[in-house]
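The instructor's notes for this session suggest beginning with a concrete chain rather than abstract definitions. Hand out the sequence below and ask the class to guess, before any prediction is shown, which regions might be ordered.
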Amino acid sequence: MGNCCFSFNGSLFDFGGGEEFIEVANYAALPATGDTSVIYVTLDDNKLYRWTGSTYVELSPQSIVPNVQTVTSSATVTPVYGNDLVVITAQAAGLTLANPTGSWVQGKDLVIRIKDNATPRAITYDTKYRAIGVTLPTTTVASKTTYLGIIYNSTDDTFDVIGVTTQA
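After discussion, reveal the predicted structure:
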C-alpha cells in the first residue's frame, strides 16, 4: 500500500498525505472546532470526518451493510443518529415516531420501515417530522410494509419526509 493511502472498512482512501488520525467515541465527541490536517474516526459507527474550517464533512463511503435499529412493537419509537434504517415489526399498538436523537448532520438520510401485526395501527409524529411533497400516513395498512424516506434539514432543524410508499 505504501505511504499514499489508508485502508478503512474495505475501502482505500488517498487524502494527499500528512494527515493525522484521531479517534473519538461518536460524532457528538468531535471537537467544536476541528483541525483541517486531521482525519477524525468515530468509533461508534466507524465513519471518517474532515474539518473544512467551518463544519465536519463525512469522508467515508456509505456502508454496504446499513446500521439498523430494530424494534418489535413499541408505542414510541425514537430513531437514533448513526442508524440508516429503523425497522418496526409486528406493531401491536398505536405508534408515535418520536423526534430522532443524537447529533444529526445536514443531509443525513434515514429510512423507517413499519409493519403491523395484521391489524391497522395509528401513526403519529413528533414535532420535527415535516412532509415535503408527500402525505404522512396516519395508519398502517394491515399486514403491509410502509417505508418513510427522510433527510435531515439542519437549516430548519427538521426531518423532512420526502418519500412514502406502502406495499400493494
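Then share the key points. The longest strand covers residues 145-153. The domain at 68-166 is CATH 2.60.120 (Jelly Rolls).
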